[in-house]
Automatic annotation (TrEMBL):
Superkingdom of origin organism: Bacteria
Annotated ranges, domain Multidrug resistance protein MdtA-like barrel-sandwich hybrid: 64-133
Segment forming the signal sequence: 1-20
GO MF terms, alphabetically ordered: efflux transmembrane transporter activity
Entry keyword annotation includes Signal: yes
Presence of the UniProt keyword Signal in the record: yes
Taxonomic placement: Bacteria, Bacillati, Bacillota, Bacilli, Bacillales
Record protein name field: Efflux RND transporter periplasmic adaptor subunit
Organism this protein belongs to: Terrihalobacillus insolitus
PROSITE patterns given in the database record: PROKAR_LIPOPROTEIN
Ranges of residues in domain YknX-like C-terminal permuted SH3-like: 217-283
GO CC term, one of those recorded: efflux pump complex
Keywords: Signal
């Protein structure tokens, strides 16, 4: 009798182990058939479309250094590239009547042009040096009539410098009402440059809002799939990928405005969608930080 009971218990235990193993294998098989994807939700808001306009930097202030009288330079106190403060001595000049005068810096800044040399002659009609001030930088651009209108709608714009990978605030100081000989309108802006990172001759990209798509459904552009002249995304419903056709209203590098049978808050696939088909089972992966 005891042997029979033991045999029955053994059979039951063996059956349970086999059943558990089958369940684990089934779960593993189901996991293996699910496509791993990353997701986000559809947002609703305004999409700004920006236009790039290129401008060149110039020093706002360029000041000539003049001698009060013609004569011989007996002492030169600066070199090209030196930083000077207003009132610093630039040179000693002995005039034709034997008087010695000190030529001083009329403004603070950097000496960018130096014509004078010790023992040489200077006049009182031509600059012996030039000083530029870099704490404020001027931006010059020429724009089409359509682009000119964009400057009337704002007082400041972001100015991006690719060489530094930095963006600065540029204040609009002048927008011409008269086109130049090429039919373009001059525009001037200023940037505070206390650290003097921005140098004359650099090129900046001005970002101006050209239009706004209001109250639109917004998705990451990477979620879009274009195939056979059809544009669609995958919406996740009950762990399945549902192929959904959409119409693009405005496409930007990172964000796109769309319309279609979608709604704010819908979960959509942003990575892994290229291997999906309509109805594919998915496994949502958490994006690594």
């Amino acid at each position: 009798m005891r042997k029979a009971i033991a045999l029955i218990l053994f059979v039951l235990l063996l059956t349970a182990c086999v059943q558990q193993q089958d369940n684990e294998q089934a779960d593993q098989t189901e996991q293996n058939t699910k496509t791993p994807v990353e997701v986000t939700t559809i947002q609703q808001g305004d999409l700004k479309v920006e236009k790039d306009i290129y401008a060149q930097t110039l020093p706002k202030t360029t000041t000539p250094v003049m001698s009060q009288a013609a004569g011989e330079v007996t002492s030169l106190e600066v070199a090209k590239g030196d930083q000077v403060d207003e009132g610093d001595p630039i040179a000693e000049v002995r005039t034709t009547n034997g008087r010695t005068i000190t030529v001083k810096a009329p403004s603070s800044g950097q000496v960018t042009m130096l014509q004078a040399q010790t023992g040489g002659m200077v006049s009182n009609t031509e600059p012996m040096a030039t000083i530029v001030t870099l704490d404020t930088i001027l931006l010059n651009a020429t724009v089409t009539p359509d682009s000119r209108a964009l400057f009337d709608e704002t007082e400041e714009v972001p100015a991006n410098f690719d060489l530094m990978d930095k963006t600065f605030r540029a204040d609009i100081t002048y927008v011409s009402d008269v086109a130049n000989d090429t039919g373009l309108f001059p525009v001037e802006l200023e940037i505070e440059n206390e650290s003097e990172q921005i140098k004359p001759g650099m090129v900046a990209s001005l970002k101006l809002p050209e239009k706004v798509v209001e109250d639109a459904l917004l998705i990451p552009t990477e979620a879009l799939i274009e195939e056979d002249e059809e544009t669609f995304i995958y919406i996740i419903k009950q762990n399945k990928a549902v192929k959904t056709t959409v119409t693009t209203v405005e496409i930007q590098t990172d964000v796109t405005a769309i319309t279609g049978a979608v709604a704010k808050g819908d979960t959509i696939v942003t990575k892994g969608q290229l291997t999906l088909q309509n109805g594919s089972m998915v496994r949502i992966m958490k994006e690594e930080n």
